[in-house]
Design brief:
Strand content: 35-45%
Structural class: mainly beta
CATH architecture of the largest domain: Sandwich
Shape: globular
Number of domains: 3
CATH class of the largest domain: Mainly Beta
Number of strands: 33
Distance between the termini: 37 Å
Radius of gyration: 21 Å
CATH topology of the largest domain: Immunoglobulin-like
Largest sheet: 8 strands, mixed
């Protein structure tokens, strides 16, 4: 997996797309989400037995306005324990949904009420986080997206959502393979050859007016696949990463690295020539690329718009992190030496997941720098719950001009991040390659 450097990043399905409905209204009552079994037509070969929120995968889009209160009751109608983790959201540790760290798992037949403020706008994931069970729950389809609208909408002709995933299905369309494979837990994790967009086999297709401005919101909800996406036929501008707006920029080679759990918002203008196509392409090994989206310019040409711009940056995040005053912690990550085992070690010790003592503790408001030292032969996708982080430069004391919830750490490499934990609680640190997390690449820190 190539390492996305700062310069590389900055300079440079058949499915139907989700066309987003009108902007959210204030919720009138708590939303009940049932985790239950269902069936989905993902591939042409037959129906797939899935687990889904409200019995569908991806689950229903949850949409709110910035400043609303989220009120959701999870009702577990599965035979497995469940929870809802609000992936990418800051603060409110008791509502983070990590079992057993911040709450007990919701047992079959049980329920749990989540209530939390929504101070930030952006695109978020909602998914289970039950230690040891998350790969199967998500791998069978229990996942969805939540959108919190900004106060003033950005001007666009179309607002589209792409939920990216992959599946491992047999000839009858049934999910195949175990979810506790030791080799996958030590290696790249569980990936499937069937690529899906919005719960259907890729590519997605759509028609837009020539010259139309498209706001594209995409999320990688696969268990393990790190996706390198390239835009062909259009000039994309990144306007938000992991829920936080950034200055609009065109990525080098029109490509972005999207780890599991990562979200990107982009804008682009369709070609002005009738019949011209725009593509979102998943780059594969040895040139085995796959189309995820094929958009065609059709119809009457739209009026030319002003230059693309992003929403204002989040004023709740600090413009500067004083690294000299930071608590510095390195996490040396390696597979267990026993070749037959599936576990991982952090700083030479086999972890207890979300049990046991914290890796470290700091007073809330104290800057923290984490070094992720990858001693394995596979890339990692390290994620810190409840935090917005700056990715620090490898060769100097600067940082990237955007915020992240996680960072890709190439095999044999080290990456550093900085953040300020402003909310007290027990915050999970783990690999978003879910098979790694379930096999022990998981721990936590305490903010007091």
């Amino acid at each position: 997996m190539p390492s996305p450097s700062r310069r590389a990043f900055l300079t440079g399905v058949a499915a139907s797309l989700v066309t987003l409905p009108a902007r959210a209204e204030a919720p009138a009552a708590p939303r009940v989400l049932e985790a239950r079994a269902g069936a989905a037509k993902i591939a042409a070969s037959g129906e797939t037995d899935i687990l889904g929120f409200d019995g569908v995968t991806p689950g229903p889009l949850l949409r709110f306005r910035q400043g609303d209160e989220l009120a959701v009751r999870l009702v577990n109608k599965l035979d497995l324990p469940a929870s809802i983790h609000w992936h990418g959201m800051r603060g409110e540790n008791a509502m983070d949904g990590v079992a057993p760290l911040t709450q007990p798992a919701v047992a079959p037949g049980g329920s749990f009420d989540y209530r939390r403020k929504l101070p930030d706008h952006g695109l978020f994931c909602y998914r289970p986080s039950v230690y040891g069970k998350t790969p199967e729950l998500m791998g069978r389809g229990l996942k969805g997206l939540m959108l919190v609208d900004e106060p003033a909408p950005l001007s666009a002709d179309a607002d589209l959502l792409l939920v990216l995933d992959d599946w491992r299905l047999d000839a009858q369309g049934k999910i195949s393979g175990a979810f506790d494979d030791a080799a996958e837990a030590r290696g790249a994790g569980r990936t499937g050859p069937l690529l899906a967009v919005n719960g259907k086999a890729a590519p997605a297709t759509h028609d837009f007016a020539p010259g139309a401005r498209v706001r594209l919101r995409l999320a990688n909800l696969a268990n393990a696949r790190i996706m390198i996406l390239t835009f062909d036929g259009v000039k994309p501008f990144v306007i938000a990463i992991d829920s936080q707006p950034c200055d609009a920029f065109e990525p080098v080679r029109r490509s972005i690295p999207v780890a599991p759990g990562a979200r990107f918002e982009l804008m682009f203008d369709m070609p002005e020539t009738e019949g011209a196509k725009a593509r979102v392409i998943l780059r594969g090994p040895d040139g085995a690329d796959s189309d995820l989206l094929i958009a065609t310019a059709k119809g009457a040409r739209t009026e030319k718009r002003p230059p693309i711009a992003a929403a204002p940056k989040n004023p709740a995040l600090p413009p500067e992190i004083k690294l000299a005053n930071a608590r510095k912690v390195d996490l040396v990550i390696a597979p267990r030496k026993e070749q037959s085992g599936a576990g991982w070690t952090i700083n030479g010790a086999v972890t207890k997941g979300y049990e046991g003592a914290p890796l470290f503790r700091v007073p809330a408001g104290t800057p923290v720098t984490l070094g992720f030292v990858n001693k394995s032969q596979t890339p990692l996708a390290m994620h810190v719950h409840g935090q917005c982080m700056r990715l620090l430069h490898d060769l100097d004391d600067g940082w990237e001009p955007y915020w992240r919830n996680g960072v890709i750490v190439p095999a044999g490499k080290t990456k550093h991040v900085a953040f300020i934990p402003d909310s007290p609680g027990k915050w999970a640190i783990h690999d978003d390659i879910l098979e790694h997390e379930a096999a022990g690449l998981a721990s936590w820190f305490q903010a007091d």
